[in-house]
Write a structure and sequence with these properties.
Layout (H helix, E strand, L loop, with lengths): L8 H4 L7 E9 L2 H14 L14 E6 L1 H6 L4 H4 L4 H5 L5 H4 L21 E7 L2 H13 L7 E10 L56 H4 L3 E10 L1 H10 L4 H12 L17 H5 L24 H5 L16 E2 L2 E3 L16 E8 L2 H13 L22 E5 L6 E6 L3 E11 L2 H8 L4
Antiparallel strand pairs: 1-3, 1-4, 2-3, 5-8, 5-11, 6-8, 7-8, 9-10
Helix pairs in contact: 2-14
The protein binds protoporphyrin IX containing FE (HEM).
Length: 437
C-alpha cells in the first residue's frame, strides 16, 4: 500500500473543477532560513490521505529544484542520489526538449530557468475565497522571514467548461495508480505500478528508486513545471485558412487533438461532436486504439492524445513506461470567440507533469512522441498542437482514398520557462528542516 499520509496531496488528487491556482517561486538566500521554511511549510501542506474530507479539494504543494536542495545545504552524496535530468535542470535540457528559437531559455520570462528558483509553492482551490485563505497561510511561512525572497508568481484559473485556451476540454485522461485508491479514468487501462509515480516503490520495470538517505526520496516525486504560451489567434487562423467550412474547421481541430472540443474522443464518435459524451466522465476515456482503428482513420496516430498516450497502438517500445500524471492549469484571459487577430495578451497553460522518472516519462514523451514520429512510422512529423518548431511542423490525417498532409503548420505553443522540481514527502520535508550540515 502507498503511504498516502506521507505523500503530498497535489501528487495524487486530480485538481478540482473549476479551479483557481497560484504558483509562487522563492529564492533561499540563507540555508537556515530555508530550513525554517521547510519546517513551516510541512505544517501547511496536506497529505493525500483522507480524500473524503471536505477540505481535500484545496491544497498547498511545495517542490524544490536541485539548486534549492543545494541552497538548503543538502549533503553532496544526497544530491548525487537524485536523477541526472533533475540535477541538470530544465534550461540545460533545452535542445533535447525542442526549446529552441523563440522557446530558447535565453528568451524565457525571468527568473524562470535561472539558478535563483529554489522553491515552488502551488496553491489550488475550487474558488478564490478558499485560495486566498490557503495562500495567506502559505505566505506566513516565508513573508516575514529574512533570507527568503518571493521572486515570481503566476495566477491561473479555469476557463469556462474546463477548456484550455485553444478551446478543448482538458483534464480528462488520468492513469490509475496501484494502491492510491484513486481510480484512473480509462477502465481499460491496468493500474500502473506505484513506482512509476512515487519514489521508493517498485515500478513497471521492477526497479525501486532510492535516495541517500532513503527517507529523503521516499514518498516524493518529480514535478516538471512549464509555462506554455498558446497562440490562440494563430491556431484559429490556421484552422480557418485550411478549411472550407466551419464543420471542416472543427473536424481538422479534432483530428489534431484526437478529441472534439467538448472532450468527446474521435475513437468513439469519429464524424461529429457529441457534447453529452464529452461531458460523461464514465465514457469519455473508455477506449483503446489498436483493434478498432489500427491505421488511424478515426484518431490519427499523429494527433496530440494518440501520441502522448498511444494506449495499445502498435508502436516501437512499450507505452506503459512513458505515462504521466498531468496537473495543468490555464492562465491569462480568454480570447473572445471568433476573434482571429492576436490581442497581445499572454495566455496558455502552466503545464505540470508528475512522475518518478523525468527522463523516460516527460523528456521521452516530449522529444520522441511530441517532436518526432518515428515511433509509429510517421517519419519526422510533429505534434500539431504542442510540437516545437526547429523547422516546420507537419501532420498527416489518414483518409480514404487519399491521406491529408498538413505541411508547414505554424508553432502554436511557445515555452516561456519552466523547471524540474522534486516534491518531497512530508517526512522528507521535516528531514530537510532538521538538516545540520
Ligand atoms: C499548450 C500545450 C498543450 C495543450 C493545449 C494540451 C492539451 C491537451 C488536451 C486538450 C488533452 C485532452 C484532454 C485530456 O485528456 O485531459 C491533452 C491530453 C494529454 N496531453 Fe496535452 N496539451 C499540451 C501539452 C502537452 C505536453 C507538453 C505533454 C507532455 C509532455 C502533454 C501530454 C498529454 C497527455 C499524456 C495527455 C493524455 C492523453 C491520453 O491519455 O489520452 N500535453 N492535452
Amino acid at each position: 500500500m502507498l503511504e498516502l499520509d506521507d505523500i503530498q496531496s497535489g501528487v495524487l488528487r486530480p485538481r478540482p473543477a473549476p479551479y483557481v491556482a497560484t504558483y509562487i517561486a522563492l529564492r533561499i538566500d540563507e540555508a537556515k532560513a530555508g530550513r525554517e521554511l521547510m519546517r513551516r511549510v510541512a505544517a501547511v501542506v496536506t497529505s493525500a490521505a483522507h480524500p473524503e474530507s471536505p477540505l481535500s479539494d484545496t491544497w498547498v504543494s511545495v517542490a524544490l529544484t536541485y539548486q534549492g536542495l543545494k541552497a538548503l545545504g543538502v549533503p553532496q552524496d544526497s544530491l548525487d542520489s537524485f536523477s541526472w535530468e533533475f540535477r541538470q535542470g530544465m534550461a540545460a535540457r533545452a535542445k533535447d526538449l525542442g526549446d529552441v528559437g523563440e522557446s530558447d531559455p535565453q528568451q524565457w520570462e525571468k527568473p524562470l530557468g535561472t539558478p535563483d528558483i529554489h522553491v515552488i509553492i502551488v496553491a489550488v482551490s475550487p474558488n478564490a475565497t478558499r485560495l486566498e485563505e490557503v495562500l495567506a497561510r502559505a505566505r506566513k511561512t516565508y513573508q516575514t522571514m529574512s533570507g527568503i525572497e518571493a521572486i515570481w508568481r503566476q495566477d491561473c484559473h479555469a476557463l469556462p467548461d474546463e477548456k484550455e485556451p485553444f478551446g478543448f476540454k482538458d483534464g480528462i485522461s488520468h492513469p490509475a495508480i496501484e494502491g492510491s485508491g484513486i481510480p484512473g479514468t480509462n477502465p481499460r487501462e491496468q493500474p500502473l505500478k506505484a513506482g512509476e509515480f512515487i519514489i521508493g516503490y517498485a515500478d513497471e520495470l521492477g526497479g525501486i528508486q532510492r535516495t541517500v538517505p532513503e527517507i529523503l526520496g521516499r514518498n516524493g516525486t518529480y514535478v516538471v513545471f512549464r509555462k506554455l504560451h498558446q497562440r490562440v489567434a494563430e491556431f484559429r487562423k490556421y484552422l480557418r485558412t485550411n478549411s472550407k467550412s466551419v464543420a471542416e474547421e472543427e473536424l481538422l481541430a479534432a483530428k489534431m487533438m484526437g478529441r472534439w472540443r467538448s472532450g468527446a474522443p474521435l475513437a468513439l464518435c469519429p464524424f461529429h461532436d457529441d457534447p453529452g459524451l464529452g461531458a460523461d466522465a464514465r465514457r469519455n476515456n473508455d477506449f483503446l486504439f489498436e483493434a478498432d482503428d489500427p491505421a488511424g482513420f478515426k484518431t490519427p496516430a499523429g494527433s496530440h492524445i494518440r501520441r502522448t498516450n498511444p494506449r495499445d497502438s502498435s508502436i516501437a517500445g512499450f507505452a506503459r513506461i512513458h505515462r504521466m500524471i498531468r496537473r495543468g492549469t490555464a492562465y491569462g484571459p480568454l480570447l473572445p470567440e471568433r476573434v482571429l487577430e492576436d490581442d497581445g495578451a499572454d495566455r496558455g497553460l502552466m503545464f505540470a507533469f508528475v512522475g518518478a522518472n523525468i527522463g523516460r516519462q516527460f523528456e521521452f514523451v516530449q522529444s520522441e512522441w511530441i517532436n518526432d514520429s518515428v515511433f509509429f512510422g510517421g517519419g519526422r512529423d510533429k505534434d500539431p498542437i504542442a510540437g516545437s518548431n526547429a523547422t516546420d511542423i507537419n501532420f498527416t490525417v489518414p483518409r480514404k482514398p487519399v491521406r491529408r498532409r498538413c505541411v508547414g503548420i505554424p508553432q502554436f505553443v511557445v515555452t516561456r520557462g519552466g523547471e524540474y522540481c522534486f516534491m518531497p514527502g512530508l517526512r522528507a520535508l521535516r528531514w530537510l528542516a532538521e538538516l545540520e550540515t
